[in-house]
Design brief:
The chain has 304 residues and is mostly beta strands. It contains 1 helix and 23 strands. Belongs to the glycosyl hydrolase 28 family.
Length: 304
């Protein structure tokens, strides 16, 4: 299945290509050599992230599941989305397995799997390589399990961004267990804007292998994805009860662990257990830890 590359074909709905809306007990199963092709090149060329002279506009998500319960999405090959590849929005009870997502590393905003306002979702046995987050988990998401994930290229596995434009955001009950990341610009990341409120809590990252990954472990409560510097603000989305366990590999950046937390709302209850990250080429990596209350158990390197 291939999308039109004529942008005028999307005048009625600029945000979606394929959408399943309010359908319960749905099973979608692929297989073989067939794929879903978003034909995204024309959209990438007209992105404000590629051409700064152009205004920023919406681009379609290739495949959206909206306001649905008890979904099974299996063995799909999805490539070159106009923007996000697969999005689960306001869903409850999702099993997504055997997904293969592919787009060029330079393609803008092409998140692999996006989870928003969705509860009880299992993402398993999937291979994702894109120009943005392999998996992005944003506000309103609860009980999200991601297991046996291969990620790269891309921006890693992210919770957030949360709290943009002074909004309230909540994410809880996230587990990433058994992931391999290679050559990504981040590893496992939590990113929140200054000025927001709410919390990201009860989060577990474990059994993860990093291969030449920049920023393998990062919490950024001062996230700022805009050209102008962001204004310093006192309110923040709170980050608490986060566990990093059995994480090993190599960092492409000197800083392998970075906790850049809020001055007014420090990161709380952060645990590093059996973490060993070496800078690529056997150089000595380091940690930067600002405004964080953490505990270290077992072998932890680099240390705060």
């Amino acid at each position: 299945m291939e999308a039109s590359d004529d942008m005028s074909d999307y005048k009625e709905d600029t945000k979606h290509w394929l959408i399943f809306d309010s359908i319960n007990n749905l099973l979608i199963e692929g297989g073989g050599t067939g794929n879903i092709n978003g034909n995204g090149k024309i959209w990438w060329q007209n992105s404000c992230k590629i051409n700064k002279t152009l205004p920023c506009k919406d681009a379609p998500t290739a495949l959206t599941f909206y306001h649905s319960k008890n979904l099974k999405v299996q063995n799909l090959n999805i490539q070159d989305a106009q923007q996000i590849h697969v999005s689960f929005e306001k869903c409850n009870g999702v099993q997504a397995s055997g997904l293969t997502v592919a787009a060029p590393e330079s393609s803008p905003n092409t998140d692999g799997i996006h989870v928003t306002r969705t509860q009880n979702i299992w993402i398993t046995n999937s291979v994702i390589g894109t120009g943005d987050d392999c998996i992005s988990i944003v506000s309103g998401s609860k009980n999200v399990q991601a297991m046996d994930i291969t990620c790269g290229p891309g921006h890693g596995i992210s919770i957030g961004s949360l709290g943009s434009k002074s909004s309230k955001a909540y994410v809880s009950g996230v587990t990433v267990d058994g992931a391999k990341l290679s050559g990504t610009t981040n590893g496992v990341r939590i990113k929140t804007w200054q000025g927001g409120s709410g919390s990201a809590s009860n989060i577990l990252f474990q059994n993860i292998e990093m291969n030449n990954v920049s920023n393998p472990i990062i919490i950024d409560q001062n996230y700022c994805d805009q050209d102008k510097p962001c204004k310093e603000q006192s309110s923040a989305v709170k980050v608490k009860d986060v566990v990093y366990k059995n994480i090993n590999g190599t960092s492409a950046s000197e800083v392998a662990i970075k906790f850049d937390c809020s001055k007014t709302h420090p990161c709380q209850e952060i645990l590093l257990q059996n973490v060993k990250l070496q800078e690529q080429g056997d150089r000595t990596a380091k940690a930067i830890c600002n405004n964080v209350k953490l505990t270290e158990k077992g072998t932890v390197f680099p240390q705060c």
